[in-house]
């Protein structure tokens, strides 16, 4: 059964009874329960399945079952089911569409000849998929062979029936299902067997030798082939070739394959293939520049294959607007998601004579013909993110280029791409059987999704920025969408980008950003439950192109090829990033007009330009391109005249191995040339009647492997050579041969010819003249057959064979010599000081870019023999694409060495060697090769396998590598192999426990690597736990986090918890013991957190009550509260009595304050605040003890004190310091010379306002020294010191004493001259005015104090200071609160003086 959209919303019961298997697909975001049980069923057999139907239930039934079910629908409307209907419509648009999936796959068959076979499958998908059958990747057409194939499709069941099978039907069959959401294929094989001895009379009897189909070896020849072709966009082109297969059997059909640039072509609307029995045809129905390339026809039988290749060029169609550019090409779609896709393309070679300003991207929804433009302004970057797609719908795209002349033609449309989650493309579900009962219940409460993860900027250009992220782990049971926010770097002002519609895909492209400005980005998730917290912000990203246009290619070199073509080579662009390829342009000398040679970029640095005019002279230039644009043109090449090369030229893309060497070329690619001559003939040994010769391999081996060599010799008499004679009738495979039946002391010359399948090549040049005389020297002869392999920038390996002539004693070592290729003979130097015993050596002293030659000398007991012939010059460089042998250990612990080569030719072979001897015995090593990769597998690794292993690839340009297996490396590999055979799932963290909200207990661990098929068992005290109300299990397959959550811990939960993991063969487990004090502590903390959670459901304290003493010695009691509302009440208490509000109580932004001004001892006590409303209450208490409070105040007073200063007065010397606030409880100690001062009539201390002073009357020499005032705050205290002695800035005591008289006589310090009474008694409600005289120069500062606190002038207290002489103090209306001690304090720079008086206020009644 499949869920699908319906127009009827329901909430009730559905009963469906089915006699056949059914498949259930659930609609996301719903709440439907399905009970399934077989029929006939029992109550014990039922199972519960949870489906989705939050807004409505949608069902579409398989057509195959429509006659076999009945449905009962009891309608019961529930208004709650529509609560979030509109939201879910947005979230789940077309979510029921899904890609094809094979419910039942076709299985492989092995049948006897002349039997019938049937392949069948069942396919699901919405919309209904289209099914196509293939044989060996060729579409099966029943009409091509009527009666042979029968295709049937009925109710999503599809079958292919093959009638009367024969050997031709042995093949791999593929069935492909495709709809707008994607495509899926599956394979099955059919093997046709024949009874022994049964052979059709029409077929020849099998022959011994080559094993092939029907016992026949087929010879295939491709004749009358297609040549280099030219077409124009929009035209139709056909390529064809006649194929001759012998013997000719009417029923035999070879495998015919077409390739473009080595990519296999499949039949499509753009290309069609046809085989008529003797001719293969490829038709390109509508040419586009994407069709340009090297086309290869490959005809394959089971014994061999033949290929034929030629290049097809496609020119631009005429522009609709003169001067407009050519159409872009290769439009592809990448990274497709629910509402987003990246469109890429390649820039055209033709710009119409004006620079391309940019590109427009168009899209078209499948099923319509309407094209809509995706970008308002042209973009220069050849990549563009298209957003705003509708989930579940399919689209095609095209691109147009624009310059100042106009718009180009549109490109070829892209492949169809579906807007869907990539995970949905491969999601599958299994069939099931039984009767189904579907019920619906209330939707579950939504969960606000968590933060998105791994947000990053994946692409940044000056036009747009692309973000990508991962969905959060906490997302509930419904889908999520996203809001994207941005802010300018350096600020914290976030702005939502997609304010109207959230995006569905975890990717987003931002446009309209200011170029050059830096931004940060973050993302929020949302669903019906609300908007989640933002992700971590990205790093600052500056808007601008990060990909640079490639640099211009280097030197361009043209080479003659044919009468109409030239081979052009060039140096690659340096440091080019994401290079797409190159465009080559040609111009007839003097015309100053360049035309493109290719309209599709090529990645190689060599190209054959066809279609040139014979006899004309051309110059060439090259441009490189990537997504950022086209580079500047390279420098023009030298002019070259189009004329055929001596060898006839080469076809495009076809070169003999090693390229053009020694002038040898072949002009017909269908004819295999014979090899070029060998060279470098030398003598390895000479006896009385025979000589052993050696020679070097030809520089060009032809079109096939060399099968052997033929040696000829002739006698030279008196300098006149005679006739040539054959030395060997049968070809020899080695490059050394003993020529026998010679005559002693006669002179001879030799020549050698190489042979391959094409025949015997021309002979080499005659060798030097050698005398046949027996060697009697004691030292060995020269080594031979030197070969260089594994060439790198600083190393290479030299292989050689030992000398044939041993000398008097056996050879016991070799020396290798080296010199630069162009150096003199005297430059030879030895590589090894000590002789080596092996026939190979790795040379590690090369310099990159230098060309070297090498030779080898052998030694025996008699000495060192003659040097070998030098090697050919070898350039020390690591060629691009060079690979090395990689050691791999698979999941079964099998150790293998792997080597890959991407430069294979059809004749290439991988050759594995140990210690540079080819491995032919597979007792210890098994070699397996597939395509471009080969591996050597150790059967049973042991010490016998220690050695150097190498792999060389034939018919390549020296592709080879080696690997040294030492004893230590073998031991290491065996340990890893053991771990793979008996694997353990690695853990990032062991099993741990943590407490979550509401006191929940979470047991969790994280596996470092575990697949989605991993299984987890949760065990407590050897008992397996299962999902239920008490235990909630979860396994996050993306992060490897495994968790189990319990709501609370009970006494019976004390014990050992274990998580047991299994992933295939790998296992692991982790345990956690919770017993004794550990368990009790965790249980207690869990209960506390649970209570805390319930406390926080009402008004509660986020920060409990605390206090702070200000520098003004005021005390603030403060706390922070949460979850409050208007009705929440806050009550303050001190020592159990409520503190009335007096204007100091504030309640803003969840913070409560209570200010206590002019703190004193009476303010100590227990303070309490109660928060309450209808949801509950919470209490916070603070014990403000007297000592702590006063000490805190004393500390503030001490810290506010000024530096201790000295002042001369009439009486003597005064030391003083000011504080910001003074309290009579403050303890102060004066010190002289670190001893406390004992006060007398001569030395006194006191306080005036905020001034603390020490008066020394009539000071003497004994009074000088260090003075200090110490403030006591119950902690460490604070001291202020001053020196009454010394030089410099400190005034000495003698100076003060000598200046004291002057101070007394002339100092104009501040004074209170008089006029103030000692005591004033006044009746209440009367007015009081007091006046006194003030003197001093400069004019003193006047301050009035009451009870040691400064009085501020207002309507009640009026204080005046007039003419710098008269100070008055007025109380407008006296009341009883005005009673107290009053003072006037005057001060200037010369001193301070005060006068005190007391005011006593009485009422008339009290007086009586």
From TrEMBL:
SUPFAM superfamilies: Fibronectin type III, Immunoglobulin. Residues 1-26 form the signal peptide. InterPro entries: FN3_dom, FN3_sf, Ig-like_dom, Ig-like_dom_sf, Ig-like_fold, Ig_I-set, Ig_sub, Ig_sub2. The keyword Repeat applies. Pfam families: fn3, I-set. Keywords: Cytoplasm, Immunoglobulin domain, Muscle protein, Repeat, Signal, Thick filament. One of its GO terms (molecular function) is structural molecule activity. It is found in: Cytoplasm. PROSITE patterns: FN3, IG_LIKE. Residues 327-421, 451-545, 552-645, 674-775, 782-881 form the Fibronectin type-III domain. Gene3D superfamilies: Immunoglobulins (2.60.40.10). Its main location: cytoplasm. GO terms for biological process: sarcomere organization. GO terms for cellular component: M band; myosin filament. Coiled coil: none annotated. It comes from the Eukaryota. Residues 100-191, 873-966, 1099-1185, 1317-1400 form the Ig-like domain. This is Myomesin 1b. It comes from Oncorhynchus tshawytscha (Chinook salmon). The lineage of its organism: Eukaryota, Metazoa, Chordata, Craniata, Vertebrata.
């Amino acid at each position: 059964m499949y869920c699908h959209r319906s127009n009827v919303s329901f909430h009730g019961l559905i009963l469906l009874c089915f006699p056949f298997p059914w498949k259930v697909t659930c609609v996301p975001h719903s709440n439907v329960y399905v009970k399934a049980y077989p029929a006939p069923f029992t109550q014990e057999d039922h199972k519960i399945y949870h489906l989705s139907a939050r807004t409505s239930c949608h069902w579409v039934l398989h057509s195959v079952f429509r006659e076999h079910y009945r449905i009962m629908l009891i309608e019961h409307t529930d208004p709650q089911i529509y609560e979030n209907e509109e939201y879910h419509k947005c979230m789940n648009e077309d979510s029921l569409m899904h890609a094809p999936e094979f419910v039942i796959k076709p299985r492989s068959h092995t049948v006897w000849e002349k039997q019938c076979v049937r392949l069948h499958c069942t396919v699901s998908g919405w919309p209904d998929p289209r099914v196509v059958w293939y044989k060996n990747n060729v579409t099966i057409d029943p009409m091509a062979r009527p009666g042979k194939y029968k295709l049937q499709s009925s109710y999503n069941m599809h079958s292919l029936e093959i009638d009367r099978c024969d050997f031709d039907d042995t093949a791999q069959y593929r069935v492909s299902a495709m709809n707008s959401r994607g495509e899926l294929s599956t394979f099955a094989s059919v093997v046709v067997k024949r009874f022994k001895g049964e052979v059709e009379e029409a077929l020849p009897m099998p022959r011994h030798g080559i094993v092939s189909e029907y016992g026949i070896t087929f010879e295939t020849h491709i004749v009358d082939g297609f040549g280099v072709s030219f077409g124009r966009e929009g035209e139709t082109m056909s390529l064809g070739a006649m194929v001759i297969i012998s013997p000719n059997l009417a029923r035999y059909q070879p495998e015919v394959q077409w390739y473009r640039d080595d990519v296999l072509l499949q039949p499509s609307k753009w290309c069609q293939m046809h085989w008529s029995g003797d001719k293969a045809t490829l038709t390109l129905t509508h040419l586009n520049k994407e069709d340009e390339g090297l086309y290869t026809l490959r005809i394959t039988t089971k014994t061999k294959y033949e290929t034929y290749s030629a290049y097809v060029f496609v020119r631009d169609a005429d522009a609709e607007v003169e001067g407009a550019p050519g159409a872009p090409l290769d439009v592809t779609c990448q990274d497709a998601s629910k509402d987003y896709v990246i469109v890429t393309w390649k820039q055209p070679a033709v710009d119409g004579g004006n620079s391309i300003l940019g590109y427009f991207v168009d899209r078209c929804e499948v099923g319509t013909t309407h094209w809509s433009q995706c970008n308002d302004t042209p973009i220069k970057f050849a990549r563009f993110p298209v957003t705003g797609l509708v989930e579940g719908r399919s689209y095609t795209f095209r691109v147009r280029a624009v310059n100042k002349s106009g718009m180009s033609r549109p490109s070829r449309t892209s492949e169809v791409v579906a807007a869907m989650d990539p995970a949905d493309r491969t999601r599958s579900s299994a069939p099931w059987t039984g009767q189904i009962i579907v019920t619906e219940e209330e939707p579950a409460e939504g969960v606000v999704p968590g933060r998105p993860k791994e947000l990053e900027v994946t692409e940044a250009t000056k036009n747009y920025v692309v973000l990508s992220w991962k969905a959060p782990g906490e997302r509930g049971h419904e889908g999520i969408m996203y809001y994207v926010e941005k802010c300018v770097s350096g600020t914290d002002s976030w702005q939502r980008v997609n304010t109207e519609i959230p995006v569905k895909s975890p990717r987003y492209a931002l446009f309209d950003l200011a170029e050059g400005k830096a931004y940060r980005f973050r993302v929020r998730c949302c669903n019906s439950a609300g908007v989640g917290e933002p992700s971590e912000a990205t790093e600052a990203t500056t808007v601008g192109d990060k990909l640079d246009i490639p640099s211009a290619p280097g030197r361009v070199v043209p080479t003659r090829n044919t009468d109409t073509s030239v081979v052009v080579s060039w140096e690659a662009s340096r440091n080019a990033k994401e290079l797409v390829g190159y465009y080559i342009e040609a111009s007839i000398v003097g015309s100053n007009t360049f035309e493109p040679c290719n309209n599709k970029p090529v990645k190689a640095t060599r190209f054959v330009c066809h279609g040139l005019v014979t006899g004309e002279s051309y110059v060439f230039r090259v441009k490189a391109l990537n997504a950022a644009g086209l580079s500047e043109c390279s420098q023009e090449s030298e002019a070259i005249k189009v004329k055929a090369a001596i060898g006839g030229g080469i076809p495009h893309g076809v070169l003999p191995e090693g390229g053009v060497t020694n002038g040898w070329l072949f002009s017909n690619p269908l004819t295999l040339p014979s090899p070029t001559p060998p060279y470098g003939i030398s003598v390895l040994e000479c006896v009385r009647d025979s000589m052993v010769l050696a020679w070097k391999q030809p520089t060009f081996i032809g079109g096939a492997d060399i099968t052997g060599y033929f040696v000829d010799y002739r006698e030279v008499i008196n300098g006149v050579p005679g006739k040539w004679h054959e030395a060997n009738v049968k070809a020899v495979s080695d490059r050394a041969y003993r020529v026998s039946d010679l005559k002693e002391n006669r002179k001879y010359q030799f020549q050698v010819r190489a042979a391959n399948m094409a025949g015997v090549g021309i002979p080499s040049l005659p060798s030097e003249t050698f005398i046949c005389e027996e060697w009697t020297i004691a030292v060995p002869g020269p080594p031979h057959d030197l070969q260089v392999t594994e060439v790198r920038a600083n190393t290479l390996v030299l292989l050689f064979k030992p000398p044939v002539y041993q000398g008097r004693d056996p050879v016991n070592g070799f020396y290798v010599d080296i010199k630069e290729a162009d150096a003199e003979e005297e430059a030879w130097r030895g590589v090894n000081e000590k002789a080596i015993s092996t026939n190979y050596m790795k040379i590690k002293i090369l310099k990159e870019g230098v060309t070297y030659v090498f030779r080898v000398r052998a030694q025996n007991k008699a000495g060192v023999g003659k040097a070998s012939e030098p090697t050919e010059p070898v350039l020390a460089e690591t060629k691009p694409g060079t690979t090395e042998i990689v050691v791999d250990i698979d999941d079964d612990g099998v150790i293998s060495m792997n080597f890959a080569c991407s430069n294979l030719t059809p004749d290439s072979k991988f050759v594995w060697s140990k210690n540079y001897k080819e491995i032919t015995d597979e007792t210890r090593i098994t070699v397996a090769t597939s395509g471009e990769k080969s591996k050597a597998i150790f059967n049973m690794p042991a010490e016998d396998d220690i050695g150097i292993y190498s792999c060389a690839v034939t018919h390549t340009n020296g592709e080879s590598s080696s690997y040294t297996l030492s004893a230590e490396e073998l031991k290491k590999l065996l340990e890893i192999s053991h771990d793979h055979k008996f694997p353990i799932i690695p853990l990032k963290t062991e099993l741990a426990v943590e407490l979550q909200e509401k006191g929940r207990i979470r047991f969790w661990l994280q596996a470092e690597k575990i697949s989605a098929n991993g299984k987890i068992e949760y065990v407590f005290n050897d008992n397996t736990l299962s999902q239920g109300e008490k235990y909630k299990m979860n396994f996050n397959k993306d992060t490897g986090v495994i968790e189990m959550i319990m709501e609370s811990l009970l006494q019976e939960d004390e014990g050992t918890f274990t998580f047991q993991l299994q992933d295939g063969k790998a296992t692991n487990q982790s345990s956690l013991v919770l017993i004794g004090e550990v368990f009790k502590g965790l249980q207690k903390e869990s209960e506390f957190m649970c209570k805390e959670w319930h406390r926080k459901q009402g008004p509660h304290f986020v920060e409990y009550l605390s206090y702070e003493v200000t520098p003004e010695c005021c005390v603030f009691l403060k706390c922070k509260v949460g979850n409050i509302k208007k009705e929440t009440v806050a009550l303050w208490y001190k020592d159990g009595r409520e503190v009335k509000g007096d204007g100091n109580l504030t309640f803003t932004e969840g913070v409560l304050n209570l200010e206590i001004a002019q703190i004193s001892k009476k303010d100590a006590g227990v303070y309490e605040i109660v928060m309450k409303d209808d949801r509950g209450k919470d209490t916070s208490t603070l014990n403000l003890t007297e000592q702590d409070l006063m000490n805190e105040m004393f500390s503030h007073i001490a810290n506010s004190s000024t530096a201790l200063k000295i002042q001369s007065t009439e009486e003597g010397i005064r030391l003083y310091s000011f504080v910001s606030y003074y309290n009579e409880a403050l303890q102060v100690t004066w010190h002289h010379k670190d001893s406390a001062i004992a006060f007398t009539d001569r030395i006194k201390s006191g306080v005036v306002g905020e001034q603390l002073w020490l008066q020394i009357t009539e000071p003497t020499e004994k009074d000088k020294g260090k003075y200090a005032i110490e403030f006591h705050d119950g902690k460490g205290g604070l001291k202020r010191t001053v020196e009454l002695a010394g030089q410099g800035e400190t005034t000495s005591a003698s100076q003060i004493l000598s200046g004291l008289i002057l101070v007394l006589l002339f100092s104009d310090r501040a004074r209170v001259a008089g006029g103030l009474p000692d005591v004033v008694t006044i009746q209440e409600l009367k007015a009081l005015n007091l006046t006194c005289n003030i003197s001093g120069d400069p004019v003193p500062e006047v301050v009035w104090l009451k009870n040691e606190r400064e009085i501020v002038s207002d309507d009640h207290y009026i204080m005046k200071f007039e003419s710098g002489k008269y100070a008055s103090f007025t109380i407008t209306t006296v009341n009883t609160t005005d009673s107290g001690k009053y003072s006037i304090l005057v001060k200037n720079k010369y001193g301070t003086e005060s006068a005190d008086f007391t005011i006593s206020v009485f009422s008339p009644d009290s007086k009586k």
